[in-house]
Amino acid sequence: DERHAAYMADCYARVTGKVGVCEGPSGGGATYILPGVVEANESSIPILAITTDISVTGRGRYTLTELDQDALYRPLTKWNCVLDDGAELPKMVRRAFREMTTGKPGAAHIGLPYDVQNQPVEESDVWADETLGRFPAWRTGPNVEAIGRAADVILAGKQPIFICGGGVVISGGEAELQTLAELLEAPVATTVSGQGSISDAHPLAVGVVGSNGGVPETREIVDAADVVVFVSCRAGSVTTERWRHPAPGAAKIVHIDVDPGVIGASYETDAAVIGDAREALAALVTEISSRGVKGGEGGAIRDRIATLKKTKFDAFQALADSNDTPIKPERVIADLQAVLPEDAITVADPGTPCPYFSAFYQQNTTGRQFISNRAHGALGFSLAGAIGAHYGRPDRQVVAVMGDGSFGMSVGELETIVRFNLPITVIVISNSVFGWIKAGQKSGYDERYFSVDFSRTDHAKVAAAYGLKTWTVEDPADLQKALRAATESGGPALVDVICQPLQEANAPVSE
pLDDT value at position 151? Predict the structure, then answer.
């Protein structure tokens, strides 16, 4: 359906660096496609949604499927138009690609009325700038004075930290980030969307911070910093645990972003750098190196990070080794890590899977390998997203991980992966509950539960009816074998894992 078409386009764009394109009809199709469009736009991912529309001559006459698409899409996209004249189509398509890929990337929409679709265009007007098919295009470099000011603030601190959002990976600035962190011997933390900015194996890598995937050990490193450098990170409620870590005024703030609108929105900023993340980080490397900063190896901060990460993963491993039933979510993460190749792409829904994967699944390479829809967090993203990721990177093993709530919202796309015989493995964390909501009702409303529990679905039987190979796992001892068989099956496969409910688990989340 149209919603999943947009999710497919989103993840295709994330793993390729190319614009994703999706299409939907007028009326219901134009509304169904919106969740994926707004998710991509808020995540700075360029997708172009093309919708048909009623004829221009039918407007205002109660024509079937009539709605004001221009007004509907305007607040939800970076750029939007509904054509009145077919001759404008080549120019508008070029405009859409220019808007999507330059500056802060985002989503665009073009509405094509039925009668406009049948109108001619001048052949000489059909041309394109191929540099706008990828993002970021036409990069913007930072101001020299701003770089100098940022270097002043960073070097005046005793313990800076980088907190990186998705823009580092989008811009391809991973190498520049690592070089700068090593120059300064500074820890590097990420948001969920920023995973892949630095290898988790790097001794300066802290991991994900914030209320979704962060743990007390990662929070401790953030709180110890006297300078926080936000890199392509909006410093929103999740990353900062409702603006408590870092606490306002506790550290100097340097903010790097291609969008000037995010600077100063949440924290008083001591130095602002507006520009592409890769260009800004490279400029800081040049500036700080010119001041005689050489960097080093080892040292107290690396030892401290190693100690805290050991504490974090020792606690994780104790739960992952448990043979309790229902199976603990930690066991799913550990066993999947054991069977997947290092370059596998994992798409996780934002329910139970996201915090566990972002906290504990180790990505020892840089780049986009873990995807979760963190802008709005709608359930039902991962299955369609995995399809888009597969078509973007057919050379990679692709896995979709979801809860049973998300399964119910996306089950129809099982037909898609069977029809095309896609080698995608689907993992369902089955606990018969909307876990995030129930956990919130447990902690915040004295266990007064409302509308969060549902009956157990046999997901393996449902998937088998579509034509997938399936496994149901209730015993932890059987889990790794089933995961290995599914991922090596060479075709569509699903593993239904009967798991501990989130409200009873030791989830890496905070209020």
Answer: 98
